[in-house]
Structure formats: structure tokens, C-alpha cells
Design brief:
Heat Shock Protein 90, 3 domains
């Protein structure tokens, strides 16, 4: 096998080396080799494929437009755009097989897991990939007729120059596929990611509210109800049985202490006061002191990040330390927090049994989604037998 020839500095300077090999057009061939026959097959298939695509676009869009006066029209148009995505997928596969053109698949529609039907329909109607595919299928009919009418007679009349004709026509096909069926530009892709991340944030916030409601209902609220009942009974016994009433008041006093502790724990789970008052270093030291495993905390932060980033970092470490307490079997752990350029980095390590993963049912996936929603990263390195190292990265934003 011949070793690849390294690219020269001149090729890097003029930008030619930056072109992806798969997007380069193969040279014109002077013989009817396999590539030429594939191009001819692609051009002959243009007509039946274009007819099918045009009929689909014209029929579904026309019917959707007529039915917009009813409740069926808009959902039908959204379904049409979803179907167009599948037609685009088939066309990219055809171009890949017959033209050697490799075009990446567009990103899926950015829908939250709990999105309702209306939200799904609205996102489908705004789908630029679907609209570009509809345009592609609409304009392909005249082109399919033209290429079929040129290539078929050329097989019998213009045989010597047919490879040149096929190459010129398929170059136009390649340009259409790249222009209308390739993935969106980076800005459009980023918008789709942000739409999806917003759904994750909404779902996470709703889950947190449900957790707080459940904790209040099952914890402090139930304890306060029992406390009120106990004080009511003590009041009734105050004259008849002072000693019994005193004992009940003493028990109620203990319930008050427990209720206050539960409320403090709940408030700490929402946003701990130590984080607001003293910053991330002190807050992480506080949560580490409650871990069942000895934890060494090292924070090298020249200043405090924005409150939102600070809160995400705190709760990320808090949940990781809870996992270490419950699942790792570790003897020691460490938490390191530092700033690198415009990023806040967190690394939590333990010497436990390992085997942690994003799909292990310990909340790792939720942490990864939360960090991803703010343009962060979450990486788990946990081989069987340990140690486990979790690295989290957040964008650094200065406090306002």
C-alpha cells in the first residue's frame, strides 16, 4: 500500500487542502467505467423520482391549503413536511450510492420529551429542512424531464461524448443536493439545539417544582399537621391532666425542631444560603461535610461566577457526592473546581467500585442534560473496578 503524500504548505495557504475529499468532483472519464454508468443510471431515474416527488408536493400542499378552513389543514401540512424529510433522506441516499456525494443528515426536529401535540405541530411547520425538501421536489420535475430526454437518445446517438454529458448533468444534480438537501448552516443548527435545550430546561424546572411540592407535602406539611393535632389534644387535657398535657407539649416541641430541620434541608435544596453569602468554595465544603465518604475540596477561583452558573455547579457537585455516598462504595473522594479561560471546570473523583454511566439510573443523564442546556459538557470515566472521574464544564460568566 502506498503511503499518503503529505500536503504542502502552499496547498494549505491557498485553501485547497481545506476542501473535503468527498465533496471534490471526480475527474471527467473518457471510458464507460462503473462511475459513468452510475451517473447515467442516476440521470435516467431522475424522471420517475421527480414525478413521484412532484405529485406528493402538489397533492399534499394543495389539499392542506384547501383544508386550512378546517382543523385538519394545518396538521396535514405539518405531516407533509415530516414526509418531505423522508423524501430528502431517500434522495441523499440515492446521491450517495450513484453520484458518490456524501451529504450529512440534517438534525432531527428539536422537540422536548414532554412536548404536546400543538408544540410538535408548530415545530414541524417551522422546519426549514422540510420546506427546502418541498422546494427541491417541486423544481425537480422539469429537470428530470430534461435529463431523461437528453440521456436516453444520447445512449444511441451521442455515444462517444455521453460520459461528458453525464458528468455535466450530474454536476448540476450534485449542486442541487448540496444546496437544498444538505444540513442547515451552523447558525440554524445552533438555533435547533437551543430550542431543544430550552425544552430540557422547562422539563427540569417542572421536575424540580414537583420534587419541592412532594417534599413539602410528605415532610414538613405532614409534620406540621400532626403538630397542630397534638397541640389541640394537649389544650383539651391542660385542665384535666396537666402532666399528660405537658408531655404532649414536649413531644410537639420535638416535632417543631424536626419540621424546622426539614424546611432548612428543603431550602438548602432550592438554593443554600451559604452559596449566596460565601460563594462556591464554602458551599462545596459544606455539602462535602455531609457526605458519608471523606471528601477533599479544592477550589481555585479568582472571582465568583454568575449566580446561575454558581448554582448549577453547586447542585452538580451535590448530586455527584450523593451518588458517591449511595452507590460507589468508595473510601475517599475529591472535588476540584477551577477556572480555565472562559470555562468553569469541575472534577469529582472517588476510589469506589466504578461502573457509573449516563444510563445507569443514578441521575447522570439528568446532570448531562442540565449542563448541555447551558452550553456545558459532562463526561463520565468510570471503568469497572474504579476509580470514577466525572468532569463537568460550564461557561464562565462574571457576576453582574
Amino acid at each position: 500500500m502506498t503511503a499518503p503524500v503529505p500536503r504542502s504548505r502552499s496547498s494549505l495557504a491557498d485553501g485547497s487542502a481545506d476542501t473535503d475529499d468527498r465533496d471534490r468532483l471526480p475527474p471527467v472519464r473518457f471510458a464507460f467505467d462503473g462511475h459513468t454508468w452510475k451517473e447515467i443510471a442516476h440521470l435516467l431515474l431522475n424522471l420517475p423520482v421527480a414525478v413521484f416527488g412532484f405529485v406528493y408536493v402538489f397533492t399534499t400542499v394543495w389539499v392542506s391549503g384547501v383544508l386550512t378552513i378546517t382543523v385538519v389543514g394545518v396538521p396535514l401540512l405539518a405531516a407533509t413536511l415530516l414526509g418531505a424529510r423522508q423524501l430528502g433522506k431517500l434522495e441523499r441516499a440515492r446521491a450517495r450510492a450513484l453520484l458518490g456525494l456524501r451529504v450529512e443528515e440534517p438534525s432531527p426536529l428539536p422537540l422536548a420529551k414532554r412536548a404536546g401535540r400543538t408544540q410538535r405541530m408548530w415545530m414541524g411547520l417551522k422546519d426549514p429542512v422540510g420546506w427546502r425538501t418541498l422546494l427541491y421536489d417541486f423544481i425537480r420535475l422539469p429537470w428530470g424531464i430534461l435529463t431523461f430526454c437528453i440521456v436516453l437518445p444520447s445512449l444511441f446517438v451521442l455515444w462517444p461524448v455521453l460520459p461528458f454529458i453525464a458528468r455535466g448533468l450530474t454536476n448540476a444534480d450534485r449542486a442541487m443536493v448540496r444546496g437544498l438537501l444538505s444540513p442547515s448552516d451552523e447558525l440554524e443548527r445552533r438555533i435547533a439545539e437551543l430550542e431543544s435545550d430550552r425544552g430540557v430546561v422547562v422539563d427540569t424546572a417542572a421536575a424540580d417544582l414537583r420534587r419541592i411540592e412532594r417534599d413539602l407535602h410528605d415532610g414538613a406539611q405532614a409534620r406540621l399537621v400532626n403538630l397542630a393535632m397534638g397541640l389541640g389534644l394537649a389544650k383539651e387535657k391542660l385542665l384535666e391532666d396537666p402532666d399528660g398535657a405537658a408531655a404532649m407539649v414536649e413531644e410537639a416541641h420535638g416535632e417543631v425542631k424536626l419540621a424546622l430541620q426539614e424546611l432548612r434541608d428543603l431550602a438548602r435544596g432550592i438554593h443554600p444560603a451559604v452559596l449566596t453569602d460565601r460563594g462556591l468554595d464554602a458551599a462545596l465544603s459544606s455539602v462535602a461535610s455531609r457526605c458519608t465518604v471523606p471528601v477533599q475540596v479544592t477550589a481555585d477561583l479568582p472571582s465568583r461566577p454568575a449566580p446561575a452558573i454558581e448554582g448549577i455547579a453547586y447542585f452538580t457537585v451535590s448530586e455527584l457526592l450523593q451518588n458517591i455516598s449511595k452507590h460507589s462504595g468508595a473510601r475517599s473522594a475529591s472535588v476540584d473546581v477551577w477556572r480555565s479561560d472562559d470555562r468553569l471546570l469541575i472534577q469529582v473523583t472517588d476510589d469506589g467500585r466504578g461502573g457509573a454511566s449516563l444510563d445507569g439510573g443514578t441521575g447522570m443523564r439528568g446532570l448531562a442534560d442540565r449542563l448541555g442546556a447551558v452550553d456545558g459538557l459532562f463526561v463520565v470515566d468510570s471503568p469497572a473496578g474504579g476509580p470514577t472521574t466525572v468532569t463537568a464544564e460550564l461557561p464562565w460568566r462574571d457576576r453582574g
